Structure formats: structure tokens, C-alpha cells
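Friendly challenge for the regulars: who can give me the C-alpha cells for this chain first? No prize, just bragging rights.
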Amino acid sequence: MRRFLAAVLALAVSPSAFAALPPRSADQLQESAELIITGEVLASRVLVHRRPSASTYLVRLGVKIDSVEKGQELIGRKTSLDIRCWSIRKTRLAGPSGHSDIPADGSRFRMWLRQNGEGFWEPLEPNGIELLEGAAAMTFAEVEKQYSLRQYGIAGALGLLTLAIFGAFRFRNRLFRRGKAG
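First reply, four minutes later:
Bragging rights claimed.
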């Protein structure tokens, strides 16, 4: 029983437990989406939240709707939408998390959307966005590991402790040698 619990705990805290979601199939996208549209990005706004090990990019897209494939009754006669996307870049993961291929300004796209709990539209994760006609995706910088002052302090204290232990052993050995010689 203990081995089972240890294995479950190891899986729960492993880096792969925090990895990005696997891509959805075309059928899964079609079935899960509340709204499917094609359109063009008119404007975008990016908010970046940086931490030492990750950067979260919150993207707000103002889009013009060209056509609606599913869910017309949900938006009525609207010709534009406000869509929320996000992407996280971490240093410890193999790849990014969040939405992939977020369209840049002026890019044409097809999106499979759902309405979140706050009433905002967001693409299905991770591949609920398809860029059309060679459209460009936004690019986000990879995060470099940044160390805090606290981490430098801990590393320095450990270094000094190691040096003190080494010095104490050397001093002790000298006293021991002197005692045998005299």
C-alpha cells in the first residue's frame, strides 16, 4: 500500500503532470465548441505576467467575424467579438502551455470557441485556433531562468558553510599531526 501511495505521489508532482494538453481531434473540436467562426484579427492587446520560472501572456483579440459555422444563435447579429487567449512559457517544461498559434493583427483564422464562466469567448485548448491562408501567429519569448536574491543568498550561505567545514577539518588535522609529532 505504501508503494502505491508513493507512486501516486511521484506521478502527481512529476513535471509531466503540469505539461500542456494533448491536441484535440477534429471531431472533438467540432463536438466541444459552442461557437465556430472564421474571421480576421483587427486589434490585439497582450498583458505579460512574469515570474522567475515562467511568463504568462494574456491576449485579448478584437476580431471581425466573416462567417459562423456553429452557434449563430449565441451571438445574434454581431459582426465582431472580443476573444481571450493565453499562453504560458516555462523553463522546466518541454513546450508551452495554453493556446497554440494565436493569430497576429491582420491574420485570418478559424476558431472553435467556448464561453468561459465570466462570459468571455475563448478558443478550446490547446488547438482551437487554425490560421488561414499563411497567416502569422504571435510569437512569445522563451523564458530564461531568473534567480532571486533569496536564491543567491541561500547558495552563498551554503558555499560559506562548506568552506567553514572544510577549514575546520583542515585545522583539526593540523592539530592532530602536531599532537603526534610532539
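Residues 1-18 have pLDDT under 50 and may be disordered. Helices lie at 2-12, 26-32, 72-75, 149-181. Your move, everyone else.
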